[in-house]
Amino acid sequence: MVAMEHAGQALIPTLTPEHLELQRAVRNFAQKEIVPIAAEFDESGEFPLDTIRKMGEMGLMGIEVPEEYGGAGMDALAYVLTMFEVARADASHSTIVSVNNSLYCNALLLFANEEQKQKYLRPVAAGEKIGAYSLTEPMSGSDAGNMASRAVLNDAGTHYIINGRKSWVTSGPVADLVLLFTMTEPEKKQKGISAFLVEADKPGFMRGKKEPKLGIRASATSEIVYDNYACPVENLIGKPGDGFKIAMAVLDAGRIGIASQAQGIAEAAYEASVDYAKTRQAFGGPIGQFQMIQQKIADMKTRIEASRLLIYNAVMAKERSKRDGSRYTLEASMAKLFASEMAMFVTDEAVQIHAGMGYSKEMPIERYYRDARITRIYEGTSEIQRMVIARNELGLR
Ligand code: CAA
Q1: pTM value?
Q2: Mean pLDDT over residues 15-39, rounded?
Q3: How close is the Cα of 251 to the center of ligand 1, in Å?
Q4: Which of 64, 167, 187, 317 shows the smallest number of beta carbons within 10 Å?
C-alpha cells in the first residue's frame, strides 16, 4: 500500500524502498536489454518476444496481480514506475506491457470468477502467455458501443457462436488469449454487449491484416476475424450485458498506463535534449546558452513535472478505488489527456533542438516523436478524454 501526502487537492504517493528497488531493477533491465535493440525492432516491426518473456520472469507482466494468481502482488504506483522506465527505453515494449497489465490482467482480476482467474489470468500475469483486449471494430472506434460483431447462444445453451471483425488489437498477431467485447443482444445497444475470454488456438479464430504503423512499430497490431468461433458459456466474463461497463472500467486503468507511457517517452526525449543543449556548439558556444533553447527546456521540464503529478494523482485514485470501489475515470482521463499532449509537445521540441540530428534515424529522437503520436489516439483520443472530463464536471451523460 502506498503512503500519501496531500498537496492541495492532488494526492502525491511516497515511494517506498520496494518501489525504489523496482525502479532501479526495471531501469537497469530496460537500459541494458531494451535500449540496444529498440531501433532495430522499430525498423523491422518484429515483436520483441525474448525481452517480453524476460520481463515476465521479472514479474512485470502482472504487476498488480496477487501472487496467488501468478502476478507480482504490487500496487498501482509500481505499475506506473515500471511503465515510465520501459517507455523511456522503448515505447513499443511499454505498449505490450501496458495492454497485458492494465487491460487484460486488470479486467480478469476485477471481473472474472475464481476458475477463470486460475485458468486465464495466471499464465498471462506470469508472463507465460500474452493477453490482448479487443473492443474496437472497423466502424466503431470512439463510439465503442456501436458494434457489428455478434455472439449468439447456440440451441444447446453450451456455446456462444461468435462472428465479426475486430480491429486495432494490440498484440493481436501474437496473443494467446483475448478479452473480447461483442454484442449478444443488439437491440439493447450498449447494454447488449458482453465480454468473453477467447483462446487463439481454437477453430474460427483468425488473425487478420497486421497494421503498418507510424510508431510503436514493434508492438504488433492486427485485425482478428471470428468465423463461427464457438466460445463456451463458461468463458463469459461477468454477466451477459456487462461488457460495456467492463470495457470502460478497464480503460480507466489502461489510460493511466498510456499516460505513463507518454511520460516515459517524453522524459527520454527531454534528457537527450538537455545533453544536446550542453554539448552541441554553435556561434562559439553550447546551444543551451541561447534563450530560445532555454525557453524550450524550461517549458518541456515544467510540463513533464505537471504530467507526473497528474499521473500520481490518478494512481492514488486507483488505489482508493481498490479500497472503496469508487470510480477514477476523471483522474485517469485528465492524466492521459495531459500526458499525451505533453509528450507530443516535448518530442516535437526535442526534434527542433536536435534539428537535422533530430530528424535522422541515427538518433532515437525521431522515434520518440513518432511513438508519442499514438498516445493521443489509442485507449480514447484526446477528444474523448475531453468529453469524459467535461461530462463529469457538468454532470452530463
Ligand atoms: N466505468 C464504469 N462504467 C462506465 C464508465 C467507466 N469508466 N464509463 C461509462 N460507464 C457506464 C455508464 O455509467 C453508463 O452506465 P448506465 O447506462 O448504467 O448509467 C454506461 O457505461 C454508458 O456510458 P455513457 O452513456 O457515458 O456511454 P457513451 O456511449 O455516451 O460514451 C465514451 C462513452 C466515453 C465515449 C466511450 O464510448 C469511450 O470511452 N469511447 C472511447 C473508446 C476507447 O477508448 N477505445 C479504445 C479501445 S482500446 C485500444 O485503443 C486498443 C488497444 O489494444 C490499446
Answers
A1: 0.96
A2: 98
A3: 8
A4: 187
Long-range contacts from 203-212, C-beta under 8 angstroms, 24+ separation: 203/229, 203/230, 204/162, 204/228, 204/229, 204/230, 205/229, 207/172, 207/173, 208/165, 208/167, 208/172, 210/45, 210/172, 210/173, 211/168, 212/45
Q: Is the CB of 327 within 6 Å of ligand 1?
A: yes
The domains found in the chain, sorted by start residue, are 3-130 (1.10.540.10), 132-243 (2.40.110.10), 247-394 (1.20.140.10)
**For ligand 1, mutation pick of 248, 376, 384 (most atoms within 8 Å of CB):** 248
**Rounded to 5°, angle at Cα 198 from 192 and 202:** 130
Q: Is residue 9 very low, low, confident or very high in pLDDT (cuts 50, 70, 90)?
A: low
For residue 5, pLDDT over 70 is answered with no
pLDDT tens sequence across 286-302: 999 999 999 999 999 99
Rounded mean pLDDT of the chain?
A: 96
pLDDT of residue 368: 98
Cell output for 397 = 451523460
The rounded Å distance from CA 142 to ligand 1 centre is: 9
* pLDDT reading at 144 higher than 50: yes
Q: Which residues contact 339 (CB under 8 A, 6 or more apart)?
A: 258, 259, 260, 262, 263, 266, 307, 310, 311, 375
Q: Identify the active-site residue in 85, 223, 349, 379.
A: 379
State mean pLDDT over 87-94.
98
Q: How far is the CA of 180 from the centre of ligand 1 (A)?
A: 15
Ligand 1 near 295 CB (within 6 A): no
Alpha helices in the chain (DSSP H): 17-29, 35-44, 49-57, 76-89, 91-98, 106-111, 114-116, 122-125, 243-279, 291-324, 329-354, 356-359, 365-373, 382-394
* 315 CA distance to ligand 1 middle (Å): 20
Confirm whether 187 is a catalytic residue.
Answer: no
Please state the length of the chain.
Answer: 397
Model confidence at 84, pLDDT cuts 50, 70, 90, reads: very high
Look at ligand 1, atom 40, and give the residue with the nearest C-alpha.
142
